[in-house]
């Protein structure tokens, strides 16, 4: 099929098919919406990062010399709120998922393009409320909004922040509804469930969690707001309420929410491992099933956050065992990835470096999760830096590594440009080193007894804290480098051909960047995902620009 | 990119059938989120009612079963008219869609009117939760019942108000013949939503109004 070209003979694609601010702000193209999300999310990530800078600076010395205790409380609260609700939860689904799901399943768009655009606006309105709260002076309740502190005693901007979180929930829900319907109803002919890329399975499972969890936090936030506004006592023991009930409702969403953050990342890693080992994923059905299993089991373990919140011992034991069960599907994935690499022809391109980072760090994060799920250990380390280290290993070491790996993998597809190979590998290594330097000492600190959420600590802990602050600096530099070269590449990067990695997947069989409606002709799929033949070289970063043949080319549609 | 498309069929769908299926399915998935939204409240209700059975029964006896009962009938009636509107859409009588939906809207408005009367009685009697809540009986924690009563019925009423807003948009479109037997997913999707809101009330009515009838503790 012939390419569509503009009047100057240039190839038409989604980026140059239309110009002007309006064509972006009113777009219904999932690819453009993904880029809009990318911009918004990056801003919130930077703001959340700024708060972290404040936290680590303060913790460089044992005394509270930089900020007031009250300011410190606001710093870590806003850090958590921005990073969790405004960066990690939307990150991979709203950017990569939005961009790739229709491409990967051979659809022209998501099922509800207008809702998709609406979700971006809703996300920004939510962000605006939260930033407004920050500008007013912030919140100091911790991202967990525990009652009755949040409803009765806190003098900070709880309602505005909570409203921001509440509204952002709608944007998640719209995205998730869109994904579920799209994956069910819009797959290309022949693309059966077990032929789908694992990235799609992961997003399907994530969407299920969003659909079933988010409304519960929404109604819980409403109750908190009502309690604060009307001075009633739904969760206030002084007025006949039960504060622990709030914790149950909060964690009923917020534990599954950690899977909203990690599942998409696991989906990305599956794609990366297959593409850079040139092998079919080992145990495809197990990884697909593990995603769904994690989504379901994730709803049954919330009590592990409440071992010390007056929950009964028997409930604690049940939640402990169930939590350990969730580790099983997670481990299945890790083993399958490693088995895939075994005897594969592995190439160490930038995305693969991130995938490796993910596997190592997620494993540490997951195993320490199992430690925390063990009642005896948790009594010792609950609310210490051990917990902080655990969740940063899974969320930063896991989820963000996957996000960055995915961005590096699909950047040429999204923008049609290549980024500098050297700098990207350099940054990946810096991030890995910086990350471990920041967070490994926190395991030790927590184990030694340093509680979380305090701005002063005994002088004995200073060495480890300084290491952590130094690591945070390295990590920060590591994050800045990709920001610079990604922006640079949009103008100066070499042009990417349609498949710079020689990867398999429908998204690689359309132009880079893809045409406005993704495919000129919807492909008919009669093959399984990841049909790599053994020993075909991956398109390495160094060979970028040279077209690498894929085995499936003959079977797929050609288009602009 | 030669999109020669049938009227009412969006560019990214292949057929009316696919479009229709997608929008119904989307509505069902959305209703699943609604179930969990109200589910959170039902859970809170369950826990506090178990903890305060006497207070809940006493609070419940304050509610007006007659008005609540009339409202239940009104809402069930509105479900019927909504179903008739959907039927009219399926057979392509576009004026009838508008008429049945307008009736649905009138019934919805009646419900909200009666609800407002009930609310104002309760507020008058000092049963609105907050520092000014008054309760003269011996029961402890009756305010919790009214916390939950106002949250649940308030959110339910909000859903009805949103539904009526959507109706205001759909009715003129229907009158002008925008919906055809091939392409009327908005009407059917909205019908699902409306029935859902009715069903929530079917649960709320016994849980809130009838709870105190038999328990004379
Ligand atoms: C492998 C399965 C996992 C298990 C068994 C597990 C277990 C736990 C436990 C028991 C706690 C509570 C510790 C305490 O407060 O004393 C905890 C905290 C936490 N976990 Fe995990 N976890 C797992 C995976 C994850 C993942 C994948 C993420 C995120 C992507 C995550 C994020 C968090 C967060 C954010 C907290 C702290 C919440 C807070 O109190 O602020 N966990 N985890
Ligand atoms: Cu958890």
Give me the Rg of chain A, rounded: 23 Å
The largest pleated sheet of chain A is described as: none
Main CATH class of chain A: Mainly Alpha
Q: Biggest interface between protein chains, with counts per chain?
A: A-B, 46 and 39 residues
Low-confidence sequence ranges of chain A: 539-560
Can you tell me the CATH topology of chain A? Answer: Cytochrome C Oxidase, Chain A
Give the CATH superfamily of chain A.
Cytochrome c oxidase-like, subunit I domain
What is the CATH architecture descriptor of chain A?
Up-down Bundle
Proportion of β residues of chain B? under 5%
Helix percent band of chain B: over 70%
Summarize the structure.
Chain A is mainly alpha-helical and 560 residues long.
Characterise the protein shown here:
The complex is a heterodimer of chains A (560) and B (217). Chain A is mainly α. Chain A has a single domain, classed as Cytochrome C Oxidase, Chain A (Up-down Bundle), CATH 1.20.210. Chain A is built from 15 helices and no strands. In chain A, helix 14 packs antiparallel against helix 15. Chain B has 217 residues and is an all-alpha fold. Chain B has one domain: Cytochrome c oxidase, subunit III, four-helix bundle (Four Helix Bundle (Hemerythrin (Met), subunit A), Up-down Bundle). Helices cover 77% and strands 0% of the residues of chain B. Chain B is elongated, with a radius of gyration of 21 Å. The mean pLDDT of chain B is 93. Classes of the chains: A mainly alpha (560), B mainly alpha (217). Chains A and B meet through helix 6 and helix 7 of A and helix 1 and helix 5 of B. Bound molecules: protoporphyrin IX containing FE and copper (II) ion (CU). Protoporphyrin IX containing FE binds at residues 144, 258, 261-262, 304-305, 323, 326-327, 330, 366, 369-370, 372-373, 378, 382, 387, 390-391, 394-395, 398-399 of chain A.
């Amino acid at each position: 099929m012939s390419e569509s070209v503009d009047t100057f003979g240039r190839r038409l694609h989604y980026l140059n098919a239309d110009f002007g601010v309006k064509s972006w702000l009113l777009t219904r193209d999932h690819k453009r919406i993904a880029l809009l999300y990318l911009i918004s999310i990056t801003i919130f990530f930077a703001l959340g990062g700024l708060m972290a800078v404040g936290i680590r600076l303060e913790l460089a010395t044992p005394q509270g010399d930089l900020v007031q205790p009250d300011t410190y409380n606001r710093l870590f609260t806003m850090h958590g709120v921005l990073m969790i609700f405004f960066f990690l939860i939307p990150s991979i689904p709203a950017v990569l998922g939005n961009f790739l799901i229709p491409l990967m399943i051979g659809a022209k768009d998501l099922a509800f393009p207008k809702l998709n655009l609406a979700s971006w606006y809703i996300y920004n309105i939510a962000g605006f409320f939260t930033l407004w709260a920050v500008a007013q002076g912030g919140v100091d309740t911790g991202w967990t909004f525990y009652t009755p502190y949040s409803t009765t005693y806190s003098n900070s901007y709880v309602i505005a922040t909570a409203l921001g979180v509440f509204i952002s929930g709608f944007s998640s829900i719209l995205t998730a509804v869109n994904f579920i319907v799209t994956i069910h109803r819009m797959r290309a002919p022949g693309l059966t469930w077990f032929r789908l890329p694992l990235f799609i399975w992961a997003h399907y499972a994530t969407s299920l969690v969003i659909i079933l969890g988010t409304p519960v936090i929404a109604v819980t936030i409403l109750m908190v707001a009502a309690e604060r506004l009307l001075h009633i006592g739904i969760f206030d023991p002084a007025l006949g309420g039960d504060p622990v009930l709030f914790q149950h409702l909060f964690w009923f969403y917020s534990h599954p929410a950690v899977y909203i953050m990690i599942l998409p990342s696991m989906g990305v890693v599956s794609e990366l491992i297959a593409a850079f080992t040139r092998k079919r994923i080992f145990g495809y059905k197990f990884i697909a099933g593990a995603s769904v299993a994690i989504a379901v089991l994730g709803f049954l373990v919330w009590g592990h956050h409440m071992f010390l919140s007056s929950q009964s011992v028997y409930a604690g034991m049940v939640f402990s065992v169930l939590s350990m069960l969730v580790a099983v599907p997670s481990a299945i994935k890790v083993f399958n990835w490693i088995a895939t690499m075994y005897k594969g022809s592995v190439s160490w391109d930038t995305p693969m470096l991130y995938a490796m980072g993910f596997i190592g760090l997620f494993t540490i994060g997951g195993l320490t999760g199992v430690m925390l799920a063990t009642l005896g250990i948790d009594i010792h380390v609950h609310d210490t830096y051990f917990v902080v280290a655990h969740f940063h290993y899974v969320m930063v070491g896991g989820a963000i590594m996957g996000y960055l790996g995915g961005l590096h993998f699909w950047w040429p597809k999204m923008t049609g440009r290549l980024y500098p190979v050297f700098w990207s590998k350099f940054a990946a290594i810096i991030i890995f080193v910086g990350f471990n330097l920041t967070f490994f000492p926190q395991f030790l600190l927590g184990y030694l007894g340093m509680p979380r959420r305090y701005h002063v600590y005994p002088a004995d802990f200073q060495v480890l804290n300084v290491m952590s602050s130094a690591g945070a600096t390295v990590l920060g530099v590591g994050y800045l480098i990709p920001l610079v070269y990604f922006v640079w590449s949009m103008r100066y990067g070499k042009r990417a051909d349609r498949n710079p990695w020689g990867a398999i997947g429908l998204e690689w069989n359309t132009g880079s960047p893809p045409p406005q409606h993704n495919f000129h002709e919807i492909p008919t799929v009669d093959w399984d995902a990841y049909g790599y033949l053994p020993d075909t070289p991956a398109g390495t970063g160094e060979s970028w620009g040279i077209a690498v043949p894929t085995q499936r080319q003959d079977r797929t549609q050609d288009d602009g | 990119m030669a999109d020669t498309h049938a009227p009412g069929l969006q560019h990214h769908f292949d057929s009316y059938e696919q479009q229709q299926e997608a929008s119904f399915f989307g509505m069902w998935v959305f209703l699943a989120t609604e179930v969990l939204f109200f589910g959170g409240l039902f859970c809170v209700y369950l826990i506090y009612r178990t903890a305060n059975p006497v207070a809940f029964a006493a609070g419940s006896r304050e509610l007006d079963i007659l008005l609540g009962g009339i409202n239940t009938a009104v809402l069930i009636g509105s479900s019927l008219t909504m179903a008739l509107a959907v039927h009219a859409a399926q057979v392509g009588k576009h004026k009838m869609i508008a008429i049945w939906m307008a009736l649905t809207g009138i019934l919805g408005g009646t419900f909200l009117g009666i609800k407002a009367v009930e609310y104002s009685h309760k507020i008058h009697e000092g049963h609105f939760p907050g520092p000014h809540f008054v309760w003269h009986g011996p029961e402890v924690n009756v305010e919790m019942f009214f916390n939950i009563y106002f949250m649940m019925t308030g959110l339910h009423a909000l859903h009805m108000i949103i539904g009526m807003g959507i109706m205001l948009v759909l009715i003129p479109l229907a009158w002008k013949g925008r919906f055809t037997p091939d392409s009327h997913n908005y009407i059917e999707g909205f019908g699902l939503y409306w029935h859902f809101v009715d069903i929530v009330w079917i649960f709320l009515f016994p849980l809130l109004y009838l709870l105190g009838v038999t328990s004379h503790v």
